[in-house]
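Lab notebook, design round three. We kept the backbone fixed and only want residue identities now. Task for the bench partner: fill in a sequence for the structure below.
Input structure tokens:
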């Protein structure tokens, strides 16, 4: 049970990291397209 909880938390944090990375990428692309 404890292990399941831990792996679930790890998955969540990985997911959040991925999401923030994607957000950053899209923001960056928007900036770039603005300056082209």
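Proposed sequence:
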């Amino acid at each position: 049970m404890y292990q399941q909880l831990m792996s679930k938390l790890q998955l969540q944090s990985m997911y959040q990291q991925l999401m923030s990375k994607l957000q950053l990428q899209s923001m960056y692309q928007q900036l770039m397209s603005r300056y082209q």
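Keep this in mind before ordering anything: The radius of gyration is 16 Å.
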